[in-house]
User: What shape does this take?
Amino acid sequence: MAVRTKGKGKGKGKRAPAVTKTPMANAIEVGHHIWLAGLGALARAQREGPKLFESLVEEGGSLEERQRANATRLVKGAWEGLRETVDARTAEVRGKAGETLENLEAIFQSRVQKALQQLVSKFPDSSAAQAAKDRLAALK
Assistant: This one.
């Protein structure tokens, strides 16, 4: 590729001789630029590295605090939800247990009453039957 450069004269028509770069020369120049960029990055890292490290540590600390606060909030929310669920289920089970006990008590009283009535009907004149009748009346 031929590159022409214009001279500094005003319109005099002087031209610099054409400079031709070979592909190898272009590759060397690009490699040199890459090398210089690497050196520049190294120099900047050496100069700004400690500041950058400190700022990254500070940013990491604030991120950790935020994440810890979020995790704590989530755990508390989950715990409260779990506690509410357990309380609701416990109340439900207690209610059902109370109903079941009332039903059992009613069934038991009914059966005892039937049994006493059968006993009383078999022995209408005895004093034991009278005592059973009195107890039966007291249960009502």
About this structure: The chain is about 80% helix and 5% strand. The beta strands are 2-3, 19-20. Residues 19-139 form one domain. The first strand starts at residue 2 and ends at 3.
